[in-house]
Specification:
This protein is α/β, with parallel strands linked by helices. The protein has a single domain, classed as Rossmann fold (3-Layer(aba) Sandwich), CATH 3.40.50. It has seven helices and seven strands, in the order αβαβαβαβαβαβαβ.
């Protein structure tokens, strides 16, 4: 058909996530937005949360153009009570969560000895504790159904150290450990836990950044890795994916 792009053709002919519900934390911008849109294109009903109401509304409008089922809620994912409300509202409006992407994160960089206790708490709560809280909230229904995908967005900083990365690396190394242990705890229930480790991504994310932004990854590169995980055949799973830019900056 004239004027139809390959992406549009896929959206019309392939909807492998039809009738599934996906939840993305930090889903209003950057990597989270790209993942949310990709999963909606694949047919999923999508719930997103974040702290910026205007960005959430904007992304929800884009999701609703792809899927009639989309939901957003302002949520502080470091608070168990707010996480509980978000999960409950999502289940009431869309159904049980089949795919969880723990994407919420912040970057706090600089020598660890120059950082405050509050800096430490913010980094650990946002980058690590939130994955624990949201996963804990959705796992019971996944266990009852005997299926589910949990994808934690980590970083190559969860595998490598660098000057000024003390707090950030500590939180991401912790996320690596949490992800691996969750995978072992849940695999016999039919639940797959995966971790994605991107290099520098060209987003609004405040932090170290790439020396040459033209050589950084794009949010869609991470969304592609998420797609690979959730469309993997039943009976196997991609436990860890490293995503690097082709050119070094």
């Amino acid at each position: 058909m004239a004027g139809m792009t390959k992406a549009n053709h896929r959206k019309m002919s392939e909807r492998p996530l039809q009738n599934q519900v996906a939840m993305i934390t930090g889903g209003s911008r950057g990597i989270g937005r790209a993942i949310a849109i990709r999963l909606a294109e694949l047919g999923a009903a999508v719930a997103i949360c974040g702290r910026d109401v205007e960005k959430l509304r904007e992304t929800a409008k884009a999701l609703q153009a792809l899927s009639q089922k989309a939901f957003w809620q302002k949520t502080d994912v470091t608070r168990a009570d707010e996480v509980g409300r978000f999960v409950s509202e999502t289940e009431a409006k869309l159904g049980a969560v089949a795919i969880l992407v723990n994407n919420a994160g912040i970057g706090l960089f600089g020598p660890a000895h120059e950082k405050s206790e509050d800096d430490w708490d913010r980094a650990m709560s946002t980058n690590l504790k939130s994955a624990f809280l949201v996963s804990r909230a959705v796992v019971p229904s996944m266990i009852r159904r005997g299926a589910g995908d949990i994808i934690n967005i980590s970083s190559l900083a969860g595998r490598n150290t660098f000057a000024g990365g003390g707090l950030y690396c500590a939180s991401k190394w912790g996320l690596q450990g949490l992800s691996g242990c969750m995978a072992e705890d849940l695999r016999n229930y039919g639940i797959r836990v995966s971790v994605i480790c991107p290099g520098s991504v060209a987003t609004e994310f405040s932090g170290r950044g790439a020396k040459d932004s033209s050589k950084a990854l794009q949010p869609d590169d991470v969304a592609h890795a998420v797609e690979a995980i959730v469309t993997q055949r039943p009976g196997s799973f991609l436990s860890e994916i490293h995503v690097r830019p082709l050119g070094k900056s």
